[in-house]
Amino acid sequence: MSVGLMQRVCAGYRVPLFDILADTLPGGLALYAGDPRPDEMIDQSRRPQKAAFWHADNVHLFSGKFYLCVQRDVLTWLRQTDPEALIMEANMRYLRNKDAADRMHRKNRPVIGWGLGTGSMGGALQKRFLSMFDAMITYSSAGKESYCRAGFPAERVFVACNAAAPRPTRPIPERPLDHYDGAPVVLYVGRLQKRKRLDLLMRACAAQPEALRPRLWIVGDGPIRAELEATAAKEYPETEFFGALYGDELTARFDRADLFCLPGTGGLALQQAMGSALPLIAAEADGTQADLVRPGNGIQVAPGDLAELTAALTMMLSDPVSLRKMGAESFRIVRDEINLEAMADVFGKAVRFVQKEGLR
Length: 360
Hints:
Blueprint: E1 3-9, H1 15-24, E2 29-34, E3 52-55, E4 58-61, E5 68-71, H2 74-81, E6 85-89, H3 97-106, E7 111-115, H4 123-130, E8 135-138, H5 141-149, E9 157-159, E10 185-189, H6 198-206, E11 215-219, H7 225-235, E12 239-243, H8 247-256, E13 259-262, H9 269-275, E14 280-283, H10 289-292, E15 298-301, H11 306-317, H12 320-336, H13 340-357
Parallel strand pairs: 1-2, 1-6, 2-3, 6-7, 7-8, 8-9, 10-11, 10-13, 11-12, 13-14, 14-15
Antiparallel strand pairs: 4-5
């Protein structure tokens, strides 16, 4: 079965998944995706090497909660690629998705949704939207629960935990088991944006007892870097900014850290941290963190809660032995459960399911 996959944009971190799918799906993968809005700063430096790529004609309308996207040439792409199954983002803001789904169903071919969950949808609108899909792939167990509550058949919902890194093939980095090599190192990797709440992380570090005050390493770049550097100079001089790092340089920072922290929204760097056997502190966001950050390998904190973040740092930094055990559990999770290979396998299961079971 040949498979088409529609995306609004082709983000660089998704490219390895698309190429794995192109390799593992028997009929290959045809990818359709366009450009983001200029202010989104989405990395598009990578393009698929194995998936057949069509550059979509995206038209962006409005902004914020009123944002809509029209992908004008999607029916042309479908006519030329003629996939036997179609995977698309389950997002009502993408206005041509219904046209694409209708065309597939006229040819008696299945459409698979891919989404976080039902969000704020409800009632007749929700029912009509979900009726477009013959199966659903979601990022998390929380997402599956929301689709099932909305009446989507549980056997047609597949959980592909959100992955950005392959299964680790190297051993756990060596770290002292019962102490730190000097002051402990807390690491953040990601875009430097207000919603990442790095100001909160600096204040939480500054509130630690003198014996636990960590070195704070911030890897990444973004529009508020100068502002954050000024905040660090005032609030927490033990902060070091490395800018954007890649490859071996980035891996070296993960390997030399003791704890990884995402104090704000989003951040797939969690999995890279887990591949370096780091325990985690992450703010609760869209539900995908719950599958990654568990009591055995980290702590989830309420977004924007300085007291809770400070307490989590104190608890974890005060016990290096437990910290190393939690790091080992992080490594086990990304080795055995949540990685790109496992994510691609779930996509394959969903495709095989609709091939066998047909339309809803």
